[in-house]
């Protein structure tokens, strides 16, 4: 694994009985890259991500994340990554400030560091007036942006985002992607799953999964050229149809 590669996957497979949910996928992700992991619902995206973040054991193959082995160093992986799940990850019955403090503690930050970063984060997101309100009272878009910011709170090398913009309006989606660009520009690697094909255009490189296999992997521009397509949605449709 070179210093530029923060994720390296070779033949990674996940079996459920006789069914291959993830079928011998191979790829690598470079430092600071926005890597799109695309596919329809049921294609195997989330199953693959769960293996990479250390919460699901592969059936076979090899993978390293942030230099750590997915089989033997899952706890080290968890300490070096951020993760935002498909379902809202923060606690609705805690305030904005309480959520930030809670996750800062889980990530092992000192109280002093949590206080400093918490104040800066609340100011950056413009949440000063609602910092002591329950998160459950916030609009979904604000919840998602807060959840993403909390996943970055401990300055991880890699952040895994599972369908992060599902259910939010187009303006909030664009704002969310501006936050992703900023994190990547600062050196954080972004691994993002999405079924919004227009969001693939925002990624440096994209892999497309169909029925557990990676059927295409390249920059959006090269994929459109390869498949003689006007958009990434057209590329996806061509692959889905076989």
TrEMBL record:
The keyword Glycoprotein does not apply. This is ABC transporter ATP-binding protein. It is found in: Membrane. One of its GO terms (molecular function) is ATP binding. PANTHER family: ABC TRANSPORTER G FAMILY MEMBER 20 ISOFORM X1 (PTHR43038:SF3), ATP-BINDING CASSETTE, SUB-FAMILY H, MEMBER 1 (PTHR43038). It is a multi-pass membrane protein. It holds the Pfam family ABC_tran. The keyword Signal does not apply. Residues 7-236 form the ABC transporter domain. It comes from the Bacteria. Keywords: ATP-binding, Membrane, Nucleotide-binding, Transmembrane, Transmembrane helix, Transport. GO terms for cellular component: membrane.
